Amino acid sequence: MQKNIAFAFWGCLFSLGAFAQSTSIDSILGQVEQNNKELKALAENVKSKRLALKSGNNLPDPQLEAYYLPFGQHDAGDYTEFHINQSFEFPTVYSARRSLIEQQTAQLELEYNTKKQEILAEARDYCLNLIYLNKRLSIESLRTEQAKQVFDQVKELYEKEQIGILEFNRAKVAWMQEQFKIQQIESDKKNLLLLLTNLNGGNEVNFSFDEYVSSLDLATKDSLWRDKQVKDPELVQLKQRETIAQRSLRLAKNKSLPNLTAGFNAQGVSGERFSGIYAGFSVPLWSNLNKVKAARAQVNFQQSFTASIMMQAYASFEKEYENYQIMLARFQQYQSTLSDLNSDELLLQAYQLGEMSFLEYYMELQFYRQAHDAMLNMQYQLYLSQTALLKHQL
């Protein structure tokens, strides 16, 4: 009963710590989204393209013309003429084009979100790598202390001439190797922080967390795929391209309607003035030839292309999801097996009691440490895979 209470207590503490850490990673990702220079530049580019698209639905400029004809042989006086006119496409064309522009603008936003998720996923991977290195640093620090303790004992036995130089050298090298590992981890952390700072627009990131999020469990495959179809901008863009093709077809059909012209005209000669309005239209017999057929063919292409890419995307997602579940089951077996072992302490006690030589102690120790390191790396790889599966939620 007490054991179950203890497990529950530590589970609560771990969940609270993991929640705080998750919030901290989210905070870092928020900073990256706000400060990343590439995203800022892309946002300005999207704004520019959005305005350019809107300008494509403007009316053509009005035309103003005036004539004054004083030269030549005439008795009725000089001839003057003035007229202004405005040409425009059939009104439904502007409505169809506005609808197309709205969908093209939405496409620009999806392209921005795709890049944003790539950058945030990269930043999250850096954060996960830093957590992994912090966990390793904690373990390697403890191992270094143990190696130093063993070295001190071996040194004392060597000075008493109870062991030979070879065993003394092995203990010294083992201690040095642990120190080198710590130095390498510290170097790797500095490099990762530089990369994270670069993603954050050159603003330094303070990162001191050493625990992952609380759970590695995922939603069911079907529900996660449904969520991905709705939120993944790369998949949504496929449907968006279909919509754009359909709006382009609608626009092409409307552009088969006549273009219109309206204006005002004033003429005068020998004191007489004539003025009034005029209107005209032009039938696009040749300018829109085959454009409707081309737009319809594009719709058919996009529908077939979307179906094909969606099938490939689901196959890739399913494979990644299944591999994740296999790796998770493996990790849980590792965790269950190694969590009940206290190999380092037991081996150290056996060595201190003289039940094994240093070489035997070191070989056994390396076996269990390699298993623990493999579990640690597997946990890290799981979180990386989880980020890839849930990138659409960033």
TrEMBL record:
It comes from the Bacteria. Residues 25-52 form a coiled coil. Keywords: Coiled coil, Signal. The keyword Cytoplasm does not apply. Residues 1-20 form the signal peptide. PANTHER family: BLR4935 PROTEIN, OUTER MEMBRANE CATION EFFLUX PROTEIN. This is TolC family protein. It comes from Agaribacillus aureus.
